[in-house]
Amino acid sequence: MIIIAMNIASVDPHLLLVLHLVLQEGSATRAARRLHLSQSAVSNALARLRSQLGDRLVVRTGRGLAPTPRAERMAPLLSAAFADLERALGREGFDPSTCTRTFTFADSEEFSQLPQLARIFEERLPRATLDLVVSEDPLAALGAGRADVVLGPDGIRGPGLYRRVLYQERAARVVRRGHPAWRRAARADADLPRIAVEVTDVTRARMPPAGGRVAIRVPTFLTAALAASETDLVATLPVRLARALAPVLGLRILDVGARPRPVVLYWHARTHQDEAMRFFRSLMLEVTRSRGGEVDPSPRAG
Q1: pTM above 0.85, yes or no
Q2: Could you tell me the pLDDT band of residue 263, with boundaries at 50, 70 and 90?
Q3: CA 163 to CA 262: how far, in whole Å?
Q4: What is the pLDDT of residues 242-253, one digit of tens each?
Q5: Any bridge partners for residue 66, and if so which?
Q6: Bridge partners, residue 163, by sequence
Q7: Contact between residue 82 and residue 20 where contact means Cβ atoms under 8 Å apart
Q8: Which domains does the chain have, with CATH numbers?
Q9: Where is 156: in which H helix or E strand?
Q10: What's the rounded Cα separation, in Å, for the pair 74 and 57?
């Protein structure tokens, strides 16, 4: 491996490009024309590469230049290498209909528009994959490329972090249908046992605490909704999620808080200008009909 690395380092890539075009064209003159060089410059480049590789590479025939066996073996490898290099240096146009990338949405539980997002994602990005994940450290996941977007409350700051308000959310208290004390539970001052959603990271969604004794603690709003649907406990959920789950789980919405809070979409500078990621973020904005403004990254951790 060390010898291979030294050989690669000792060869001028421009000489390999010259050989690549000479092999394609079968002519030093035509290769020179494509490179915007003189024929003598191409001949000199071939002479230098012959000396470095210890092979004639091409020989003259009645129809131009023919490759040696070694050059024949090199030809498809050079073609593939320069094609990859052109793709790496070029700016390919983004086509949603043929995109096969995976888009990773971390901590998406509170995003009650997931069904709408899934539908529009399938329509607009028919060959791509939407990956919904839970991350222990969403901000680190953004920077490391393990997540493309994260949902969270407003006010989070970090190096290279972009954010945009998706919508305003309120808290809703819910109980199961048939709750024996639902009328009393509907009073704001009702002191009933409740379910507490515990969060362990600054990016996790937060709901204002409700009154009453904490009977159980759960890690997610979905778990809280499921527990409320099978017990006489009160759960506090984001109102959009509560409205989406109520008919499915048989929940009754008791009340909706008066003070909204912003729910914010976060992404990292590494994907800020990526065309595919910009398109994906636009889908999220479309399903939420966001009017929030984009905010530049924070210059320091916060």
Answers
A1: no
A2: confident
A3: 11
A4: 998 999 999 999
A5: 59
A6: 266, 295
A7: yes
A8: 2-89 (1.10.10.10), 102-167+262-295 (3.40.190.10), 171-259 (3.40.190.10)
A9: none
A10: 9
